[in-house]
């Protein structure tokens, strides 16, 4: 029997796709830095997409082959309601087989080398888990 391949977008709606298109036009400074200086260059050969529709969510960065989502979080994620939402969202994504890592905007802008090292480390770990 053929193994079922996971759906790259997990049946995201047309509205989610339209929202993702708008978000791609308005990346934060931290998102743009991560995209331009790390993920666009296909680290370790893995293709990442930005503002990627997945089910009812839009993932900041996503590698389908690794089933890895990278979220870049601003200060809104410190709000109690947002923290609850983020936990619920991450749990649902994990149930779908995704690994989610969250990185603070400030970390990207102030400690970029450390963030880059972390992303490469997570990619290598995920590679061993999934491939």
Helix content: 40-55%
N→C terminal distance:
20 Å
The number of distinct structural domains comes to 1
Describe the largest sheet. 4 strands, mixed
Overall mean pLDDT score?
89
Number of helical regions: 5
- As residue ranges, the low-confidence spans are 1-5
CATH structural fold name: Endonuclease, Chain A
Tell me what the CATH architecture is. 3-Layer(aba) Sandwich
Number of strands: 4
Using the alpha-carbon principal axes, give the shape: globular
**Strand arrangement across the biggest beta sheet:** 1-2-3-4
Question: Radius of gyration over alpha carbons?
Answer: 15 Å
Oligomer: single chain
Listing every helix as H and every strand as E from the N terminus to the C terminus, the arrangement reads: HHEEEHEHH
CATH class: Alpha Beta
Tell me the strand percentage band: 15-25%
* CATH superfamily placement: VSR Endonuclease
Judged by helices, strands and strand pairing, the structural class is alpha+beta
Task: Give a structural overview.
This protein has 131 residues and is an alpha+beta fold. It has one domain: VSR Endonuclease (Endonuclease, Chain A, 3-Layer(aba) Sandwich), CATH 3.40.960. 47% of the residues lie in helices and 19% in strands. The chain has five helices and four strands; from the N terminus they run H-H-E-E-E-H-E-H-H. The protein has a four-stranded mixed sheet with strand order 1-2-3-4, sandwiched between helices. Strand 3, helix 3 and strand 4 form a beta-alpha-beta unit.
């Amino acid at each position: 029997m053929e193994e079922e391949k996971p759906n790259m977008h997990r049946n995201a709606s047309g509205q989610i796709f339209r929202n993702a298109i708008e978000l791609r036009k308005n990346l934060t400074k931290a998102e743009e830095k991560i995209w331009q200086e790390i993920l666009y260059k296909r680290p370790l050969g893995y293709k990442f997409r930005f503002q990627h529709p997945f089910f009812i969510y839009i993932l900041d960065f996503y590698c389908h082959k690794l089933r890895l989502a990278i979220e870049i979080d601003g200060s809104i994620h410190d709000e109690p309601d947002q923290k609850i939402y983020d936990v619920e969202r991450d749990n649902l994504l994990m149930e779908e087989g995704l690994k989610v890592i969250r990185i603070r905007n400030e970390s990207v802008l102030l400690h970029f080398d450390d963030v880059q090292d972390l992303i490469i480390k997570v990619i290598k770990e995920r590679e061993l888990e999934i491939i």
